[in-house]
User: What shape does this take?
Amino acid sequence: MQEFTALDGALLVDKPPGPTSHDVVDAIRRRFGIKKVGHCGTLDPNATGLLIIVLGRATKLSERLMGDDKVYEGTIKFGETTTSHDSDGEITATRPVPPLTLELLNHEASLFVGDQMQLPPMVSAIKKDGVPLYKLARKGIEIEREPRLVHIYNYRFTTCQPPVADFCVACTKGTYIRSLANDLGEKLGCGAHLTALRRTASGRFDVADALPLDAILKLPVTELEKRVLPYLRLAANA
Assistant: This one.
């Protein structure tokens, strides 16, 4: 049996806004010359925070690690809906915002806690006949999507300065926080979209233990090896 190397494992990256999750994978692959590199759970380009990168033989564990629950922090703007349910999309409607308070938002947010069927947005990486939905959306094509079962463990707002408010949410994998923001806006009758999102945790991994991407890309290989969580440790807990 081939022995594991110091680069068979997982790397915790604090993703900046801008690059896609695949861009981060490519940057690490090119910089360190590692043939097999993958990620566990896509973050939208403008989202930041924890991105688990798997290296070498640990790419076999990506599906297991991807299935972990997630924790996010973010900001919602009320009164505007967009094509993508976030600030990347075009504004489709503007409506008056009712009087918003932290108490009201937390009451409404609490109604989302538990199991729910969530309709994925058209601007998503879900594929239809092998084509990602976001590519169809760019052509103005909208197709029927199957609602997916997700579970919200906790959903609460921490600040409220209308028309924006900050929140945190803990949920199962595959939950679209953009859709959660849109659905809350519809429930309040004014519409809403996500303006910022940061993943702070995935399973037992926390963004506090991650390094910013630019710092990782400046590391010599010997220092990178010290940041890699070993394969055997991952496999034992995955």
Residues 70-201 form a domain with the Pseudouridine synthase fold (CATH 3.30.2350.10). Residues 20 and 45 are 5 Å apart (CA to CA). DSSP finds eight helices and 15 strands in the chain.
